[in-house]
Design goal:
The complex is a heterodimer. In chain A, helix 1 packs parallel to helix 6. Chain A contains 13 helices and two strands; from the N terminus they run H-H-H-H-E-H-E-H-H-H-H-H-H-H-H. By secondary structure, chain A is mostly helical. Chain A has a two-stranded antiparallel sheet with strand order 1-2. Chain B has a single domain, classed as ABC transporter involved in vitamin B12 uptake, BtuC (Orthogonal Bundle). In chain B, helix 3 crosses helix 14, helix 5 runs antiparallel to helix 6 and helix 6 runs antiparallel to helix 11. Classes of the chains: A mainly alpha, B mainly alpha. The interface between A and B is large, with 48 and 47 residues.
Chain lengths: 306, 374
């Protein structure tokens, strides 16, 4: 145990932070957008799985991984719209419907995805940023998927859009104080439905990353709860898209801990190390939440933090 | 029978049935969508629906299969319904079931060879303590740290499953279990028998008893009433001086204990030892059962049997029609979505019901004039 190769471990964690963190990034951005409008969508887990299947299937049929990503996004858009529409009905609890959507999304994905478990679809290419390095592992770690870069840009754009554009301000107003928004003449439900639908799109793209890049295949055990952890991750990031990026990288590193330790020869406690992201999520929530006041930056209409 | 009397009878029937209407509408909506979903893909939708019924309730064998699956669902649904009484949505029953099953499987190897009448209750208590503590932790985190219980219960359930797998494949593994890691098998005297004449174990009876006990507790005890107040309005509960924190913890602990007991029965009556076969998703199906029953413990008995039947029919669908085993999952997902969406009509129905009630009360005065018209 004493002669662990720490540089290998750190490199593996760094590479894992980006590789494992990208789906977290997309799902948390989607959840962030949804929650800014005042709703919680726990169904992003189901949307993620459904997006992974749709993306893989579309990539298999069309031969283009990017078409797969788009198809996945479209499926997420549909399921997100469903969540938005149903939760606009009176007496429908958004958290409960999220759980239902989780079940429906995974059910649909497993049912329709059965024929795609065996065949090999076209994968997303990676961009080689490490060709200057002669260090093989560093080179490998710097092979970054374009979706990650898109996600980084998107986080910045969302941060700017939510704080400085008219649309962003309207969305935040609807999420913070629906009464005021209504008094100003904005229609609450269409705005929330749009935010939930866009959130679904992003979450499904995160799912397509899982099936089309890393781990890079479609099977029923593909998702390990990323969609749900995103909810906690957004709380940790205090509803700020740029902080979502940092949180996603942190969670990615935690998720890569198990495989990284295995790579340097520590195999005992494999399941426990793989559960590190869950423990981290719980720990972060315990540390950041308070019972007597709502969190800073939390959208006022959110049922989650009340 | 005069038309007025039939009309009043109809109104009374309407008043009695309105609470069931959203559920019935949801059932119809689910079936319609399910048939559409299969028909669009060119799959035999009608045959599939018939086969689901046949696989669930079509024969003695099917009934036994259904009840076998319903037994743990009764208890894991209580793990959702009891915390729901104090206003919490807990979805971590799977974790409590795993912890309970593990505690029950390990206990006999830590104790001397007690007789079964002493050991089985001890196993049950250990399982209930383990499961109860696991879910009570969610309640505690919510009350004292403000952590959302839906997320924390699910995370705790993931952690419980990881801990379970680590222990079963590591420190607690029976060296004799080669290709399927499990704990040391229970001695034969500690295995729970089937009900006489059936191939369903005693867990079913205990599950039904637990549901009845939960109903009596929620409806007819002071603590149950206090829980309803907490669930209805926390501020009112605090205002009248109810121990809110303690009530929330109690509801969570009782729910977790039920799920833990389900784990104990799965170990002692079905599996014989704790292995990953225990994690068959009963905790998650229990959520659907509880929502379908509208968190009413007595309705859980019916819903658990229906959902158990749907799950039991999966293998028949796979064999006869070559449908994926996820077919029942799609059906359950559609059912869950429909149940929640049709909840929206409840408000309208209440208004309708009030109007009917007024008519029934007013009816005797107007009956004479109305009768003369006919």
């Amino acid at each position: 145990m004493s002669n662990i190769d720490f540089s290998t471990l750190l490199l593996a964690l760094f590479a894992g932070a980006i590789r494992v963190g990208t789906p977290f990034l997309f799902v948390s951005l989607g959840e962030c957008l949804t929650e800014k409008g005042g709703r919680v969508n726990l169904g992003l887990e189901g949307i993620l799985v459904c997006g992974a299947m749709t993306g893989y299937a579309a990539s298999y049929f069309s031969g283009s991984a990017w078409l797969g990503v788009l198809a996945a996004g479209a499926s997420g858009l549909l399921l997100g719209t469903l969540h938005g529409l149903v939760c606009s009905l009176p007496r429908v609890n958004d958290i409960a419907f999220g759980i239902a959507l989780m079940l429906l999304g995974t059910g649909l994905a497993f049912f329709l995805g059965k024929p795609f478990i065996q065949p090999q679809a076209a994968m997303l290419p990676s961009i080689d940023l490490g060709s200057w390095s002669s260090h093989a592992q560093l080179h490998h770690a710097l092979q970054i998927n374009a979706l990650f870069l898109i996600g980084v840009v998107l986080a910045g754009v969302l941060q700017w859009g939510l704080s400085s554009t008219r649309w962003g301000l309207v969305l935040r107003l609807v999420g913070d104080h629906a009464e005021t928004a209504r008094a100003l003449g904005y229609r609450i439900n269409p705005i929330r439905i749009a935010a939930t639908a866009c959130g679904g799109f992003l979450a499904a793209v995160g799912g397509a990353y899982l099936s089309l890049y890393y781990p890079g295949s479609w099977n029923e055990g593909l998702s390990s709860g990323q969609g749900l952890m995103a909810v906690a991750l957004v709380i940790f990031a205090r509803w700020q898209p740029l902080r979502c990026l940092l949180a996603a990288l942190l969670f990615g590193a935690a998720g890569a801990l198990g495989p990284a330790l295995q790579a340097v020869g520590i195999t005992s406690g494999y399941y426990l190390f793989n559960a590190a992201p869950y423990a981290l999520t719980l720990l972060i929530m315990v540390v950041t939440c308070r019972p007597d006041r709502t969190l800073g930056n939390a959208p006022g209409e959110l049922s989650l933090t009340r | 029978m005069t038309p007025v009397m039939t009309r009043r009878l109809g109104l009374r029937l309407g008043i009695g049935l309105t609470p069931l209407l959203p559920t019935l509408a949801a059932l119809c909506g689910t079936l319609l969508l399910f048939v559409l979903f299969l028909a669009v893909q060119g799959k035999p939708a009608g045959d599939a629906c018939l086969l689901i019924f046949e696989g669930a309730f079509g024969s003695m064998f099917a009934w036994q299969n259904t009840l076998q699956r319903a037994a743990p669902l009764l208890l894991t649904a209580l793990c959702v319904a009891l915390p729901a009484r104090v206003g919490l949505i807990v979805i971590g029953g799977e974790g409590a079931l795993a912890m309970g099953g593990l505690a029950a499987a390990v206990l006999p190897s830590c104790l001397p060879l007690w007789p079964a009448w002493l050991m089985l209750p001890a196993m049950a208590i250990a399982a209930m303590l383990a499961g109860g503590a696991w879910i009570a932790l969610c309640g505690a985190l919510r009350q004292w740290r403000g952590v959302n219980e839906t997320i924390s219960s699910l995370l705790l359930s993931y952690l419980a499953v990881a801990l379970f797998k680590h222990l079963v494949e590591g420190p607690l593994r029976d060296p004799g279990s080669l290709n399927k890691p499990s704990t040391t098998p229970l001695p034969d005297i500690y295995l729970i028998n089937a009900l006489p004449g059936l191939e369903v174990h005693w867990g079913l009876v205990w599950g039904v008893l637990a549901c009845i006990a939960a109903w009596v507790f929620l409806r007819h005890s002071v603590a149950g009433f206090a829980m309803a107040i907490v669930g209805g309005n926390v501020r009112t509960a605090k205002l009248v001086g109810l121990p809110v924190n303690r009530l929330v913890l109690l509801a969570c602990a009782l729910g977790g204990a039920a799920a833990g007991l389900a784990g104990m029965f799965e170990v002692a009556a079905v599996q014989g030892s704790a292995s990953s076969a225990l994690l068959a998703g009963y905790g998650f199906s229990g959520i659907l059962v509880a929502f379908a029953a509208r968190q009413n413990p007595l309705a859980i008995v019916v819903c658990a049997i229906v959902i158990g039947g749907v799950e039991a029919s999966g293998s028949l669908l796979q064999r006869r029609l070559d449908l994926p085993d996820a077919t029942t999952l799609v059906l359950q997902g559609l059912l869950f979505c429909n149940l929640l969406a049709w909840e929206a009509i409840t408000g309208r129905l209440t208004a309708l019901r009030l109007r009917w009630q007024q008519q029934v009360q007013v009816a005797p005065h107007i009956s004479a004039s109305e009768a003369s018209h006919v």
